[in-house]
Every structure is written in C-alpha cells, then in structure tokens.
Amino acid sequence: MNIEELVNKIKIYNPESDSDMIKLAFEYAKKAHGNTKRKSGEPYIIHPFQTAMILADQKMDDTTIIAGLLHDVPEDTKKTVDDVKKEFGKEVANLVEGITKLGQLKYRGVDRYIENLRKMFVAMASDVRTIIVKFADRIHNLSTLDALAPEKQKRISMESLEIFAPIAGRLGMGSIRGQLEDLSFPFAYPAEYKWLINKIKGTLKKEEKYVEEAKKDISQILAKNSVKVKFIKGRRKYLLSLYRKLLKHNKDLSKIHDIVALRIVVSTVAECYGVLGLIHQHYKPMKGRIKDYIAQPKPSGYQSLHTTIFYKKGQLVEIQARTPEMHEQAEYGIAAHWHYKEGAKGKSKKEAARDKLAWVEELLKFQKQTSDDEQYFESLKLEFFKDRIFVFTPKGDVIDLPEDATPIDFAYHIHSGLGNSCNGVKINEKIATLSTPLKSGDLVEIIASKNRKKPSKNWLIFVKTGSAKSKIRQGLNIDKRGVIQKALHAADGQIEYLTKTKKIKKKK
Ligand code: MN
Description:
This protein is of the alpha+beta class.
C-alpha cells in the first residue's frame, strides 16, 4: 500500500486531479483509524485505501476518491461527519454521510430488506456516487471474506448477489456487477462454483491460447488495412454469468463460444462495421452468430457488433467490435458521467447522471405518498422493473411476465401444480429448454409429466419471478425461513431483478 500508487493511477485518467488533496485525505483517514486492525490482522487503513483504488479503476473524480478514503471515518473513529466537512467540504461530507447511513445494511427479516432497498434508493437519488463508493467498499470486503466466519461469509455474499449486483446492473455498471457476482459466487454457491471451475478448466486454457493468437493475426490484418485500433484484447466472461448461460444450454459447454472473446475498440461506428467486414474476408463467420447490437441495442442499451469465426483448426473465436463510447457505457455505465473529459464542467456531468436516474426520483416521490409496502413494490414493478413481456398460452390467453422470464416462470404463473410437474416446453411449437428466456409474442406450451413430482433445485438459479422461486422452494421444502419469500410475495413476483440468484438452503 502506497499512496503514490493511488495518486499515479488517478493522474493517468484525470490530469487535473488534486494529488495533494488525495494525500491529505489518506493521511487524515490513516490518523483517524490509528492502530485499529481488520479481522485479517492488517492495519485498517488498507481497506479505505483499496476502496479508493477500486474507485480509481472506475475512473472516478477526486470527490468520490476522497469519500472512499474517508468512508469509514465517522462510523469507526472519533471523527464525525462535521469534522470531515470542516476539512474536506460539503460535497465530500455528504457522500461520507450517505455511505455511513448505508453502513448498517443487514440481511435480516423482510422489513429490514425493504428498508435496505429504500435506503439504497434514497442514497442514489441524492447522489449516485454514494452507491458507487458503497460498491467499491463491498468489492474490497468480498475480496477479503476469507478472514470472516462462514456465517458472515454467506450473509455478505448473498446480500451482494441479491441487492448490490442487480442495482449495479441496473445502473449499467458491468464491471462492478461482474466483480460483485464473481467474488460472491464461491461463498454463496460453493458446490456450483467448484463444478464450474472444473468443467471449464481445459476449455478456458485452450480458448485463451487461441484468442491470443487470433489477436496477433487480426491486429496484423487491421494494420495492413490502416485501421487504427484503440485497443484489442481478450476478455474472459464473468463466471456467474457463464454459469447462468450454461444452465440455459443444459450445461453443454460446447454450445458456448464466448468464454473468452476478442474485443476490438475503434473510434467510429463506421470502423466497427469495417472491422467486421475485414474479419469476414479472412475467416468464415459461423451462421446465426453475427449480431448487430449497434443497429439494434439490447434492452439494457448495450451496443457492439458480435461475430463468431472459424479460426485455425476449426476453433471458434468470438469477436466484438465497439467504439470507446460503447465500451464506457458497457463497463462503467452511470459512473462514466464522472469521467474526466477535457473542457467538461463538473456540474453538467452530475446533471446528466441525474437525468438518467429520473426513475429513482419518481420512485421516492411515490414512496413518500405511501407507507404501504405492497403499493411500494407495485411502484417498483412499474418503474424499476418496467421491462415486461407478453406471451401466449395454447388457448390464446395473454400472460404478462418480466423480461427474460423462462418457461418455468410461465408454468408457475399459471398454476403451482403445472410448475411442479413441468418436464419440458414447446416454444412456438418447437421443443426448447426450460431455461430459455421467453420473448414477447411467444406461444408457450408446457409439457407436464405425471412422473415428475418435484421441481428441480437448478430452476432456482434461472427463474426470474419471485413467485416461481417461492413455489419451487415450497415444492422442494428447502426454505422454512420465509424471510425473503414474504418480500417476494409482497412484490407479487416483481422483486426478482433484485434477487436474480437465490441461496439454496441445504437440508441438514
Ligand atoms: Mn468500509
């Protein structure tokens, strides 16, 4: 740990950073925390320092970095928010205060859960950077979970998966979300994690090797054709995201071609298409795998061109082409508003971010008008989770489900018995897997079997609706806590976006 390391890291993306102020905040925190130690036995100051380093990965502004350095001062030392305000000003103090208020997030009981969500939204609405510091704090805590007792490991990892990661996703922060999920995964689902690591070991090595070679070959092709590449590099898929994808494909690894992909960033949209054309001139693309998310962005706003090519010896390699702006959006999401841009003014950045978060404000306005939790979740349904799909039963009835809902969600939506006996599905008259994400307009026919008496544990990992989740649990008789379920029921199945993955409580 060396403060110069942090200061230098910031200077790379923000030449106007006030290094003296950053150093001052570091010394202030160091002095305030004194001889306090973390559970791991390390000096406490390592934690706020690493939190600030993670914020620097996100290319955050000085105010956020300083708040990261000071974020545990009011909670854990004799210094107060007022002391921080005197030394570092109102903006930093407000952030630190917001983070301190979030600090008591505990995963206990349905009321606490709802209260926690509210706190997150309140913090987001006042300054979304509060949440960004909280994410960085959590990422460092997750990366040092080893030092904690198993029960705490479980609680913190589950809370990260159920509350933090989905909110990061909703804010478009792909790299934060991926880190939160992948650091939590081994603690939240140890068996599934081990299974995955074993499963992909060989393939991962092979793909990494081919992608490295493809990188050299394609760089040459692009250079020969005078394409100026901003950067080109292999990226490995996040592990939990890979696991979810595998579940959708019956755990068949051969169906997945982007464990490692080659990412090419060029300046303009025209160059993206140019890159794709050049690559297709040299390598045969795989049928059905050319995806133009520039002309047709994903619902999340994600943009890029994707193609899968037959590289040497029939090895498939996925290539992604995008502009720096698309890359920023995909990786940093809302945090990109605080990135240094020459000539840009601080205030306009903050306003731009606020515009994007208008839905949070709406949610809070509504929340003030109601003390009814059910109504509150109703509003969540409308605002936070507004992407819905409409699918048809064989009789022509319309069923309304959240986006990416699966046939299992559909079956449970119709009837618990249908869900429990669900053995297969036809989508638009074709057999499909039970984890296939449904699309608006799909005709869905559930194939029930008398022989199936119980739901499958694996369904819990890909179903989207809370009601399906709690019915599966009932069917398996594996969760008697009824804690989060109540929230899920109250939400009428809408809270699932905040609870994408659920703990599977093992029978003792
Ligand atoms: Mn902390």
